Amino acid sequence: MELNQHDHRILAELQADARLTMADLGRRVHLSQPAVTERVRKLEEAGVICGYRAVVDAGKLGYGIRAVIRISSLDDAAMARALDSSPEVLTAYGVTGEDSWILELAVRDVAHLRAALSRFCQQAPTSTAIILHALREHAPLKPLPTTDPGPAPSPAAHMKKPRRSGA
Q1: Is the pLDDT at 160 greater than 80, yes or no?
Q2: pTM for this structure?
């Protein structure tokens, strides 16, 4: 799907507040309610908009600790089994590099963290970091630049010519 400026503005507004009515959204992006409703429907059908959700403050629900767990070498099937018994895991990413997985957990306290970790560290080495604060979370995705920067200059173009000593 080719996105235009209206689509990008709609996406920005919905990422800021997904509870906007179509009438309010239309006013913000300078389109009629039927036009904006149709564009949102097309964005949903194309899979550009994957869903809508409430962002919940884990601390206000009693989860006092959020942590990031790095896990080395654990296959997908073993990870799936561990995740089935780990509702504390908010996100699980299969990654490249030294680790196979990076997980984000929300737990009540250190004892809860220890219990959640035990499901993973019995199967593979882990490394844990407690999140102290977040500088950025749930940042909106912005459109990529549409201009083609052209071919990259060749490495030889950056080399200086040697000076000639004149005599």
Answers
A1: no
A2: 0.73
